[in-house]
Design brief:
Layout lengths: L7 H6 L8 H23 L5 H8 L4 H18 L2 H7 L6 H28 L9
Length: about 130
């Protein structure tokens, strides 16, 4: 079974930007992403976080955890560029570029989530055949 997650950024990227509330929705969505990333970092990257726990159980995953931390930092930096959006807010000529960045940011967030799951799953020993 697969659950598809649609980021509000992805939805906004495909939404008609001529709507007056579009820019406010973009700002809210970027704030929400920033908050989600901060919560993820608090749960994953701290001294008692999930990354440390996973690497403790399975030291061979250390490089994967480092890559995920770096990926998370890049994603956070990219999401915090929202002040650039504020500079062009309301300018219909800039809306397509902003929509493109929203779609790219949503895709980056999705890739990060997809790479995070195996790290945690692979850190748990599995006895599939009861052997």
């Amino acid at each position: 079974m697969s659950v598809t997650y649609y980021s509000s950024l992805e939805i906004l990227a495909a939404t008609d930007h001529r709507n007056a509330s579009w820019w406010a929705s973009v700002a809210r969505a970027l704030d929400d992403l920033d908050e989600r990333l901060a919560q993820d970092a608090a749960g994953d990257e701290g001294p008692t976080g999930a990354f440390v726990d996973s690497v403790t159980r399975q030291p061979s995953l250390s490089n994967d955890a480092i890559r995920l931390r770096d990926d998370h930092a890049r994603l956070t930096e990219r999401a915090r560029r929202r002040r650039l959006v504020v500079q062009v807010a309301g300018d219909d000529r800039e809306a397509p570029a902003v929509a493109g960045e929203l779609a790219a940011l949503a895709a980056a967030e999705d890739r990060h989530q997809q790479r995070s799951r195996p790290l945690f799953w692979d850190s748990f020993p599995r006895d599939i055949g009861r052997e």
